[in-house]
Amino acid sequence: MSRDINNKFWDEELETLPREELEKRQLEDLKEIVKFAYENAPYYKRSFDEAGVKPEDIKTLKDIQKFPFINKKTQRDTQGVGSFLGELAAVPEEDVVFISTSSGSTGVPTMSPFTKKDFDEFQDTESRWFWQIGMRPNDRYVHALNFSLYVGGPDVIGAQNLGALCIWGGTLPSERLLFVLKTYQPTVIWTSPSYAWQLGEKALKSGIDPKKDLNIKKIIVAGELGGSIDATRKAIEDIWGAEVYDFYGLSDIFGACAAMCEAKDGLHIAENHILVETIDIHTGEILEPGQVGELVFTTLRKHARPLIRFRTGDIGRIDNTKCSCGRTHGRIHILGRKDDMFIVSAVNVFPSDIEAVIREQDGITGEYLIRIFERDFTNKYAVEIEKNADNPKSDDEVAAEVTAALKARIGVKPARVVVHPDGGLDTRSEHKSRRVIDERTLDYSI
């Protein structure tokens, strides 16, 4: 199928469906997938029966609220039970053509299986996101994501299906990746926000000016919150002279489930594949669209392992109003992970709040480390930063400025700000950077 490269939509009919028609299609798919899960996945048959609900109870989209939640623990507890794929799987192993696994950062790694149809629809969605940010067949694209069991690895196929020239970079060392960027002059790259920023810094230090010596026009970032933090996105854009777009994915579902458009006002989520709810993190109460809570996803078309009311652990909100770009699929705004949020003096603090402040400060590198600890049975936090080598101010002056900025933005100041020289923090990583160290010994589960 040939496409008009001047049309900003990959699938204009789908992407601009009136809300009423989009929700009508969602309801049809929801009825089918709940019935399929009940009839084919042992866990859903058992849990629905225990909850006293049946697939026939789905009459409207809101009826999904009658059904029980699942979460990562559900996946871990059912994985490998009864079969290799486990009790959440709804197809036999011979129907599965691909599996990815989670990183295991919050427990035992969990697998995510795909049928051929699941995988093809996954890649069509990736093509849609690539097209949405302006990638076209004449682009050269470097996929600088991990290919080792990571669900984002195969997303490169979506770029190939679009027609772009694809370079399967993977997790190359920085020096080798910069060689690729300089030699092949690609126009688009995808990596993590922290690594995009660090790679630009390394390029400058090695005598390469990303704006003049390289040809990157667009940078896709994912895996961390930085791409949706204005200050971080601007810092990356300033180094590269390129547009930065944030993508959001879950190993539990597929690569990128949501992506920015040119408006950069949240990330359009593939609502033809995912039904989104928002709930209170403490009570599980359903919140109205626009309210901040934990995002709950129900997969509408993934048959290998349907996820019915999966608690993502991500805190955010969804905006279902029509975007200025013309797309009608809702936009999610992610604030952080429920696991990462901590409370200081009755204020909810996300690491993303702190990052936004650090990236805006002059005279520091933008690298940071957060330590959460206890003092007198209350939560405290400290921030470690790096001072630019040419910053004439004393460490105490820099610490005082950062403390004041954090107090003004977040509402609670850090117990201390530790200032290191440029390069003094061990936070730089080829992929996700570890920026939060929790030193508390009491249980602060929220």
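Next protein, fold it too.
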Amino acid sequence: MKHKVGCVLALITLFWLPALFMACSGEPQPAASHVSLDSSFRETSLEKEVRTLMEKGISLEDRKRQIPVIELAFARHTTPERARNLAALCYLKTLGSPLCPLDLAEIALAETGGHRLSSKATSSKGAMGVWQLMPRQARSHGYTPEEMRNDEKCADAAVRTLLSKLVVADGNMDQAKKLYCGVGPQAEAYLRKIRSIRKTLLAEMQRSETQIALNDQETAVQ
């Protein structure tokens, strides 16, 4: 019996050793923007999370550090509880993809920041929800347009839409976000708005990390 257990453990070790080596090597792994979207969505949550560690060098800790800044930014437009829930969705829905929480947060702020990040927001063209998905986009991801009122489903559809735009944009994230809006002058203005939001979020993140570092130094001295 002990011999059998030992054999099983040895096989498991051999199976995971290459993945562990890649995750710990410190070298950024190729982005998965050109991988079939259908195959990526068939992965389990655990497989997605493991793959995240190996994509673009973005660690889970890097992602988690973005959440308080996103929550603070959202709280300026909606209630603290809703800000917390939406920030959590930005984290959870981008796991296992080349996107990071800030990418999803920027789009939410650009799309419905002026409407209190409301799930009931509807554009003149019929786009719905916090991330403003058009009915045809919702249907292409297996949802009804009305389901875009559900924040979780809307976030999921937004991630899938942005990933599809990322493929069209050949991995250029700015171009993908521009395509998320559309084309023409309106899309150009949208991209400028996205960049402005990103600049603010990154500045707030830098201030937060600087303050944390100062607090750690004070604690160490005491």
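About the second fold: Residues 35-221 form a domain with the Lysozyme fold (CATH 1.10.530.10).
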